[in-house]
Amino acid sequence: MIGSLLHLLRGAHVGFVLAREGGLAFVDAAELPPHLRLALRIGRMLERPGLGDGAARLSKALTRLGPSYVKFGQFLATRPDIVGMAAALDLEKLQDRVPAFPQGQAIRVVETAFGKPLRDLFASFSEPVAAASIAQVHKATVLDPDGTQRMLAVKIMRPGVRERFQRDLQVMRFMARVVNALSPQAERLRPREVVEILARSVTMEMDFRLEAAAMSELAQNTKDDEDFRVPRPEWELTARDVLSSEWIDGTRLHARADIVAAGHDPQALGRTVIQSFLRQAIRDGFFHADMHQGNLFVDAQGRLVAVDFGIMGRLGMAERRFLAEILLGFILRDYRRVAQVHFEAGYVPRHHSVDDFAQAIRAIGEPIHQRRADEISMAKVLTLLFDVTALFDMSTRTELVMLQKTMVVVEGVARSLDPRLDMWTTAEPVVRAWIARNLGPVGRVEGAGRAALTLADVVADIPDIAQRLRRILVRFDEEGSHEAVQIRNLARMEKRRAVWSTLALWAIAVGALVMAFR
């Protein structure tokens, strides 16, 4: 009871800040039931005057609420299917910068992680050079056995951050339950599932050993790419709360003028940004999902270098084939093939017509071929494509949404380097190479081999599957009547929870009004 009351009070505070900073402006009242439209109208009355647009307001409100909500906003930036593309792009700009914590605390975290004094680990250890909500970065040096001195970037977990995130996540879970109970239509956006995905994402991001593993995997995948590289993790100096990796000296991709002054070709670098991302996504199925300018450098050799591997995306073979074939289909204007790929992947239900779907895709593809190549946005085409697929009952695929969002960011970075970049000509070599390798004769033989191994595994498991099925059927016969009673009890509990959730939302609204006029 006390825990629920605390969640209620904290939820009221969150609701007040969102309302006061205008963070509710992006909510479409037309999609809400009458009682929530009334609550939204009350919340909008609390807005401060002179605020910006809806997406900007949401960013400001999340920043005021603190690091956990900034992280939540950054997570929502990867889910335009929930907040819309405009809000997602604005949330991408959320500044995850907070004051650094004291040097003494950082040293204690390092010494606790490795059980040694700092002087036994590093030859030098600087004051923090960057700080964010989860961690801050220090520059350090180590001496190799041969006397060589190397510079490292040492990322250190902020003390107490796990406890704060867990507390705030409990409030988010409570609010998600309230929203879901009050508006059945909200289930389409799966608020409870979104919070749980965020919880898993943050849990992984707060174990730096997993980030080091992502860095290592991406480095291995791209080791033969001459125009792209990844810093090396220093495994012996990495723990749950400390991540040490190669220090990167280079020019950030923020300013084109700085890149030119450093002697690099921005047009070539723009092509590298696009092709590196597509190689990661299509060839490797493992891509950096946060490739904005702040996470990209160009080194002295002109190679693109990525940092910060807390957010990564994965695509299975089916998704990689889907992406490659639809991109090539748009390049060749083969719209029926693009439609067919959607059906083969199982993304569009079979009761729809392939020809009707191809007609809808043609409406996207033909207008772009009437424009100059440098005016065509690959990301916009994919966004329109996913909009059209919604008309054909295509279910939301989280991995494809993250891919779409990342492509929007990557294309923006590339176009900032070369405004006249032809995205389709740049993408074609990567797409064709993957299709030739994986859908050609060699790829088909390898696919047949994988299918044979899978079939052999299934056949070998048949006796065990039969035994488990038999046990399930016996248990079902024994517990059928008991299950019926449990289902009825569960229905009564859900009804009571819906009533209390309704009262909770109104209590939050009243609490917000009280705080507003104190």
H and E string: HHHHHHHEEEHHHEEEHHEEEEHHHHHHH
Task: Characterize the biggest β-sheet.
Answer: 4 strands, antiparallel
Helix content bin: 55-70%
Mean pLDDT metric: 78
Percent range for β-strand residues = 5-15%
Q: How many distinct beta strands?
A: 10
How many separate structural domains?
Answer: 3
Q: What structural class do you assign from the helix and strand content?
A: alpha+beta
**How many DSSP helices?**
19
How would you describe what is shown here?
- The protein has 518 residues and is α+β, with helices and mostly antiparallel strands.
- The chain has three domains: 107 residues, no CATH class; 109 residues, Phosphorylase Kinase, domain 1 (2-Layer Sandwich); 190 residues, no CATH class.
- It has 19 helices and ten strands.
- The strands form three sheets. It has a four-stranded antiparallel β-sheet with strand order 1-2-3-5. The protein has a four-stranded mixed β-sheet with strand order 4-9-8-6, with helices on one face. Strands 7-10 form a two-stranded antiparallel ribbon.
- The longest helix is centred in the last third of the chain and has 76 residues.
- The model has no long low-confidence stretch (mean pLDDT 78).
- This is ABC1 atypical kinase-like domain-containing protein.
- Belongs to the protein kinase superfamily. ADCK protein kinase family.
- It comes from Methylobacterium jeotgali.
- Pathway: Cofactor biosynthesis; ubiquinone biosynthesis [regulation].
